[in-house]
Amino acid sequence: EGVGPQEYTLIKMKVQELNGKLNSLAPKNVYLVAATLRPETMYGQTNCFIGPDLTYIAVEAKDGDYFICTRRAARNMAYQGILSTENEVRPVLELKGMDLMGLKLSAPLSGYQTIYTLPMLTVKEEKGTGIVTSVPSDSPDDFAALNDLKNKAPLREKYGISPEMVNFEPIPIIEVPEYGNLCAPAVCIALGIRSQNDKEKLTLAKEKVYLKSFYEGILLVGHFSGKRVQDVKKSLQNMLIKSNDALLYQE
Ligand code: A2H
Q: Is the pTM above the cut of 0.90?
């Protein structure tokens, strides 16, 4: 990454039903908070990725709700005035990624009413919140990781994921010249990417679509349908913040 802080949009994904260890957080509202660089793609969310071996904590947000993220992200949030405690982290619960698998979530703007938390082995502890919202229509990483879970029953079983939790198709949300309205699947198929382990090809896929989608992409859905991504990205981020579905976060 370059110099200076990176600004992310934190997307609040509400846990619809608390279970297991999360029961102790009732009756509060509990959100997984996902860090994204592409708030304009939230219409296409199909699931949320968690690192199964990472450690997460629940902390109290300023308004009394609980947020779940890595300890590292919580510390940054405390310094940025996002939590109820200033400059200090007071975890109300500690969890492993494994404890968060198969949860039902409400994801703002998503075409799906309910989406599920699923495992992704490449989620990094040192980036964002350790929670990644998944948009397989526009992110080659997300498309490859979701496909692995669709294609590999042993992988699902290892993490307690049922077939219906991965039975979500990419949603066409952005038209990109030369790639069409599902640019990540198109580029993954063109490059012969078979799984999330095809690291080099995935890097190439990301280089191919990322800038092109930003500079030439046209939104196909929602309030800004028909507009260029680069012209409405900021407005869309503001809309999500105003509706209390998102926050700004830096690191
Ligand atoms: B992006 P940068 Cl549609 N580990 O959001 C791995 N990946 C992470 C992460 C973590 N701890 N935290 C965030 N990310 C992902 C949407 C998206 C993203 C699309 C297309 C490209 C894209 C939906 N997933 O990112 O290293 C998140 O995925 C391509 C760069 O800080 C976040 O934005 O540049 C992006 O990586 C942040 O990566």
A: yes
